[in-house]
Design a protein that fits this description.
about 675 residues; alpha+beta; Histidine-containing Protein, Chain: A; Beta-Lactamase; 5 domains; five-stranded antiparallel beta sheet; binds adenosine-5'-triphosphate; binds magnesium ion
Length: about 675
């Protein structure tokens, strides 16, 4: 019969690690000596373990006073059982044992538990009661990206700042299935306290990386979202859409399909196309796997549609068919609308280009404003004819430039352009200047001289400042213009002339006609095509490009490096009235460019009178034009300063300025000093 011996454990601390190692060592000796296996049964619950299993023995947690049974696997080894039971009942003195071997057993078993921890796929972190990490397995390393060497012996929160093990240590309560972020990973973790003898001696966290799961679920969400959007689009488009699977079964039709085909979806969905439309295009595409575009079909119900049908091919495999159709009546209506609109657009474009068709010869005239372009368009049109042109405009607006533009745009361009300044030539000389004279016509006429009209023959004569011509000369000019022939002064023969006449003036001819200073008939003879050049103040938008143009022109004229102009300077220039128009602007720029040494022109370089307008304007704006709806209200001081400046400008003396403002001249003087106005 198998021998079993009951043993009472008398050792005070029960069977803990070191004692277990001693037992295992003894057991191994006996098993070798007696060639048998020895077992321990715990009486408390009849559980049986091999006597040489260190981990099993420790985990049995046998305490002092507990009874166990010892037995072997054969009937012939009662001596082994005797010896083993004696050992177990003893006092476990260390000296009785081979210390090296005990250390080895403990070491091997520790290693074994480390191996166990490392082979777990979940992360495992164990802390002691001070929250100091004692176990940090391989999976924990992988998930957290932190090495065990770095983690062991450190406080959990120093290593993972989001760790909540300290809470578990404090409360003794477990935390199950908590989601938490560690670096870029999302983990789900269980945290449990380790309790021994009713005391919390540590805590353990096991966790799993669910980042991939999270990514997958967010991908799933976006796919669902996308699907919903597509669904929404399909339901709301005006095109009839029908989808078939690879077997030809209709899987989907949208509401537009129901409307256009006058059919309910229940009547077609889940039916096969072979039943519904065996000879149709969808069937054809299903069989041939090639798309069909723009096919026009007349339906049985009279609807005419245009259809695009395509195979759905995924990874080279036929997966179904989709058809997109439109009612053709709608398309026809749209096509007509497009035709109508494009005809209108074409007409408007033609009109527009007619309006601004300006000959290249006018490119020398800088400006993009509507008023200028309109004038140039008229001049350009005039250049195509021989008609007389009367150019009007204030001084410096470019009348001479336009006259030249007309000449060089006309087919007289290779013939002379002769300018006569009617105001610069004394009245008594103007006639011979214009029409020439014969030898001996008057004292000093030692030889024949051709007049400007003859010099301009086949070309253009530009009668500048025509408003300054005296009335006698006006009559003579009128005759030449009417007859198209002239007689030289002192001559008798008439000379035919073919000249295009352009006249210009900055004077108010209509008023002169009324006052009798200019001949009515000559006025009408000259004013065949009037060209009105706008003053610069009416086209301030052109100032920046004109300034740029002159900077370039003048810098290259003087071989200077190109200078730049500050924004503020432009705003001053735009505020100024330019009575001398473009000529004045050109002079100002030339003056600035030659006087300033800086690379950038600033307000300080401007002549003082240009700034005045702007400053006065801003004073006026500040002083007078404060309205309720204004965003920014000036301060009282600003208004006072502006009012004072205005009064001083108007009244010149402190006394009268003070009278106007209702204060004493002393106050005016004091305030003027305060605001640096004097
Ligand atoms: N739009 C412009 N673009 C470029 N330069 C211009 C322009 N208008 C005028 N100018 C220049 O301004 C100056 C004056 O032009 P122009 O002599 O043609 O003026 P005007 O109208 O004949 O003046 P006035 O009545 O004083 O004779 C010229 O140097 C001319 O080149
Ligand atoms: Mg001129």
């Amino acid at each position: 019969m198998r021998k079993e011996i009951q043993v009472k454990i008398t050792y005070k601390k029960g069977i803990h690690t070191r004692v277990a190692a001693m037992i295992v060592q003894k057991c191994q000796d006996l098993m070798r000596k007696y060639q048998c296996k020895l077992f321990i049964k715990r009486d408390r619950d009849n559980s049986v373990i091999p006597g040489n299993s260190m981990l099993a023995l420790v985990s049995m947690k046998i305490v002092e006073g507990e009874t166990i049974h010892v037995f072997s696997d054969s009937d012939h080894t009662s001596e082994a059982v005797d010896e083993f039971s004696r050992f177990l009942g003893g006092a476990f003195l260390l000296e009785q044992c081979n210390l090296d071997e005990i250390d080895n057993i403990i070491q091997n078993n520790t290693l074994a538990s480390e191996k166990v921890f490392d082979s777990i796929v979940n992360g495992l972190i164990v802390v002691d009661h001070n929250n100091v990490i004692s176990v940090f397995n391989k999976a924990a390393e992988r998930i957290t990206g932190i090495g065990a060497k770095e983690a062991l012996g450190k406080e959990a929160n120093d290593i993972i700042d989001t760790s909540k093990l300290y809470e578990v240590l404090k409360t003794g309560r477990e935390q199950i299935a908590f989601k938490q972020k560690i670096g870029n990973s999302t983990i789900v973790t269980n945290r449990t306290p380790i309790i021994a003898d009713g005391k919390i001696i540590g805590a353990v966290a096991t966790f799993q990386d669910i980042s991939e799961l999270e990514n997958l679920s967010s991908e799933l969400r976006s796919v669902q979202d996308l699907q919903q959007r597509f669904q929404h689009i399909l339901e709301n488009v005006d095109d009839a859409i029908c989808m078939l699977d690879k077997y030809g079964t209709i899987t989907y039709v949208n509401p537009a399909y129901e409307r256009i085909m006058k059919i309910q979806q229940e009547e077609v969905v889940n039916k096969n196309i072979g039943e519904i439309s065996p000879a149709g295009i969808r069937m054809q595409v299903l069989k041939e796997k090639t798309p069909q575009f723009g096919r026009i079909i007349r339906k049985g119900n009279g609807t005419e549609i245009i259809a695009n049908v395509s195979p759905i091919i995924i990874d080279g495999e036929m997966n179904g068919v989709v058809s997109v159709s439109k009612e053709i009546t709608e398309i026809k209506r749209l096509a007509e609308k497009i035709e109508e609109l494009s005809a209108k657009t074409k007409y408007l474009q033609e009109e527009l280009s007619k309006k601004h068709e300006i000959n290249k010869s006018f490119d020398i005239i800088v400006g993009k404003s509507g008023v200028l372009l309109e004038a140039l368009a008229v001049a350009s049109k005039a250049s195509e004819t021989d008609a007389t042109v009367l150019i009007r405009g204030e001084s410096g607006t470019g009348k001479e430039l336009v006259a030249k533009g007309i000449h060089y745009a006309s087919n007289r361009k290779n013939k002379p352009f002769i300018r006569v300044n009617c105001s610069a030539i004394p009245h008594n000389l103007l006639e011979s200047e214009l029409f020439g004279y014969e030898k001996g016509a008057f004292t000093g006429a030692v030889k024949q001289k051709l007049g400007k009209f003859e010099l301009a023959d086949e070309g253009t004569i530009f009668l500048d400042e025509i408003g300054d011509m005296d009335k006698e000369m006006q009559a003579k000019l009128l005759r030449v213009l009417q007859e198209r022939e002239l007689e030289r002064v002192g001559g008798t023969k008439t000379i035919p002339i073919s000249v295009r006449v352009i006249a210009a003036t900055n004077r108010n001819l209509e008023e002169m006609v009324e006052q009798g200073a200019f001949r009515n008939d000559l006025y009408y003879r000259l004013n065949v095509i009037p060209v009105m050049l706008p003053p610069l103040r009416q086209r301030k938008g052109d100032i920046p490009i004109i300034v740029e143009h002159f900077i370039e022109k003048i810098c290259s004229k003087y071989g200077m490096q190109k200078k730049r102009i500050g924004k503020e300077v432009l705003s001053y220039m735009e505020a100024y009235g330019w009575p001398g128009n473009v000529r004045e602007l050109e002079n100002v720029i030339e003056r600035i460019l030659t006087l300033s040494r800086e690379e950038i022109i600033t307000v300080r370089d401007l002549p003082a009178y240009i700034g005045v307008d702007k400053e006065e304007k801003s004073f006026r704006e500040t002083a007078v034009a404060v309205k309720e709806e204004d965003d920014e209200i000036p301060t009282l001081e600003e208004v006072e300063k502006a009012l004072l400046a205005l009064a001083l400008k108007k009244h010149k003396s402190f006394h009268s300025a003070g009278k106007a403002l209702g204060i004493t001249h002393k106050t005016v003087a004091a305030k003027a000093r305060k605001y640096n106005l004097i």
